Each structure stands twice: as C-alpha cells, then as structure tokens.
Write the structure tokens for this entry.
Amino acid sequence: MNTSTTPMTTATPTAPATDLPRTLSALMKSDWRSRSVKEELRENMTRMLAAKENLFPGIVGYEDTVLPEIVNAMIAGHDMLFLGEKGQGKSRLMRSLIRFLDAQLPYMDIPGCPVHEDPTKPITHMGRAMLANTPADKIPIAWWRREDRYAERLAPGTKFADVVGEIDPAKMAFGAGMGSEDALHFGLIPRTHRGIFAMNELPDLDELVQVGLFNVLEERDVQIRGYPIRFDLDVLVLFSANPSTYNRSGKVIPQLKDRIGSVIQTHYPRERALGIQITRQEAGIDLGGSHPVVVPPFMDEIIEQISIQARASRFIDASSGVSARFSSSNWRTMVANARRRAIQLGETPAVPRISDLAHLYSSSAGKLELDLMGSHQMNEKQVLDSIIAEAVGVVFQEYVDEHGLGEIAEIFAKGVKIEVGDLIPSSTYAERLQRVPPAWDKAFEVNASKDPAVRASCVEFVLAGLHATDRISRSQKHGRTSYEVK
C-alpha cells in the first residue's frame, strides 16, 4: 500500500505561495474562512467523495471493509483507533489522512509562540494580545503546509512531557507563575494544534500519559501537575494498537477507550492475488534495466503463500501476526538472488527459481515470532523451511488440479535424476531435460519451451512440487539439491 500527496481543490487560496495573503487584513479579504481541523477534513473529503475521486490512492484490499469505516468516522468527526496486527498498514492509513487537509493553512506569525494560531481564534495569551492590540494590516500571516501538520509518536518510552507538556523551570526562574501558560513547555499535542496527532501502539503507553490523553479527548485542554491550564485545542487524535494487547485488561484505561469515537479494524489481504499486488507494490523494485527480471506467476504465488502459511502455522505466535513486510522482504530477496545469478553467469533475463528461496532466511529472520508455548523443538530456520515446503506444495497442487501431472510424471517414471541449485546455469537444465511437455507452457503462462531461464524455473517448481506432494525423493549436499523417482 502507499499514499499520495496529489494536490486537490480546497478552501485554501490556490495562488502560489508568494502570492498568498501576508497580513490579517489581506487574509480577511480572501476566500479563506476559519474551520476546525475536523470540519476541514470532512469538507475536503466529502468534496472528493462527491467528485468520485479515489480517496486513498495506492491502498488496495480495503475498499469494501476498512476504507468505508474511515470515511464514516471522518464524516462523524470522530477520533480513531486503528486496530490490527502488525504489517496491516495502520500507520500508512493514518498518514494517508494528510491528503484531506488544506494544501496550506494560514496562521499568525508570532515570534516565540509555540502553536500555529488561528488568525481569528487564538488560544494563547500571546495570540490574543496580538489580535487585540495590533492593527489587522500589521498582523503578519504565514502559511503551514499540510505535510507539516501531522505528528506521530511511538508509545514505548513516551513521557507525559513529550506529548502533553511540562513545567519549565527556566521559565519559572524568570518569574512565570506555576499555574500560568508562561511556565509551560508545550508537548507534541499542543504543538499540533490545528493538525493531526497519531500515537502508535497505544497499549504500550504509560498510564499517566493515557490519563493526559483522556483529558485531551474529553475536554480538549491540558492539565499539568494539577494545574488546569485550559486551551481550546483543535486536533484530530489517532491511535493504533494490536488486538491482543488492546483487549488485554488493564493495558488501556477504560475511560480512554470510551472516548475514542471509532475503532477501525484492519486485516491481512483476504485473497492471494491482492497480497501479490501489495507485495510487488511495497517491494518497489524495477524489474527492467540492464539486468531485467521475469518473475513467473507461480513464484509470486509461492512468496505470498509462504506468508499465508506462516499466519496459519501452529509454530508461529498467532497474536504477533505476520507482517506484509515479511512478504515484500522475501520477494526482494528472491529477485535479488535471481539477479545475482544472472549477472554472475551472464544470463538474461534473470528468472527466480525455487532454489532462490534458500536465501529467504536472511530476510525472514526476526519477522516470525515462534510460539514458545508449543511443544515443538524447531528453531526459526527449521520452521521457515517447513513453511516454505508447505507453500510450494499448496501452489503446486493447484497447478496439478488444473493441468494434471500427465506428461510431467512420465519423465520421472523413466528414472530421471536432476540436480538443481541457485548457481547452476539454465542451459544445464535444458541438457538434462531435453523435451518440455506442451502442458508446461499452458500451465505456467510463461514460455518454458523457448527460454532456458524460464524452463529452469519451471523445472525446479515441478521438482519441488513433486517432492512436497511425496511423489519423488530429494537429497541435499553442498548447496545443491538432487531429485529422483522413488
């Protein structure tokens, strides 16, 4: 998934930055009007919705589930919690809301002011004093870009002072009263006034900070060390959390849960084809260039099926999830090893094979959390090898069901023994297996009979599939694998 920052029509003047109003009097003569951040988001989003624009470009698989819930929450003016396992795009979705902000927002340009004041509704005494005592044509106006109006924080290690604020001893030394705003050092939320603030991994947030956020959500004000210093804060607050920790008693205070307007449930791709689309999109690799790569459809399917098998595996901790980053990292490793082989052997194009999957451990390490409560004694590499074998078997069985074994099985019935490996030249496969059954071309949607590199990939897929379905035997030695009929 990804997001876009494509410009859109908003209530903000569309003139170049140098032509935007620079004083309050000029601003009041323009078409700008003061709106809360939730009104701004709602109006821009509904305008795009009415124009049938793509509201979330680059985000796939959520069109009928997650995205309508986000739109409803924005129309309702709700703060939101994105609830889902790791790698389901929660942070990406939160950041995507930036595109519904005005391209630029005017604020009073006051030296030393910690917030971007609304030119007509300031919340600090500095802003109110300037508005009351300065002629409109002397009040300077600056402009805040939409990209800068989003702040994000990861919960672990976050302190109250980081997000809400703290009494500043230095300011008190210069005479500021303990209960006055002059004594405060503003945290991220007050500084994000008129913007969007996101807190990732909410259940890992210290309880004291949760209490501070509860007050922000309920009263839209700030209380520091018992001093109720009220600000009419204008901010959309977003959270993300994993279901296993969010639903655990005591991790999130009930009062804070109760104040979150909408809970947006995310999920992994519900179809393998969507998962493949997301994986390729997230991998971000150019398959062209001086060393082009052709990825056979079955290799795409196997990479995605590995993630599917991992999510269902009894050896993996189900509560931790298996991120979409697991798929994209593995896909990049597979393509990289195919390119390495092609460069080393002088072959073109580079075509990934099953033997390239032997290198997936480097991109999978740390991304799978083993179920330590289970009775198995397998380490992470052994679990990964088992999952890869299961994935190959599932995909191969689908091809067998559709196209049958027929001529492929006949070859091995004659006692053919074939050795494969990620650095064996593609021509070697052609020598050892002279004829390619016509069914192969139909089954693989690639030209296996004419391109040696594609033929090698198809051969390895069939061999690994026959072994996974217990039809032929396999032996491994010195990085090479031999298959033969039992």
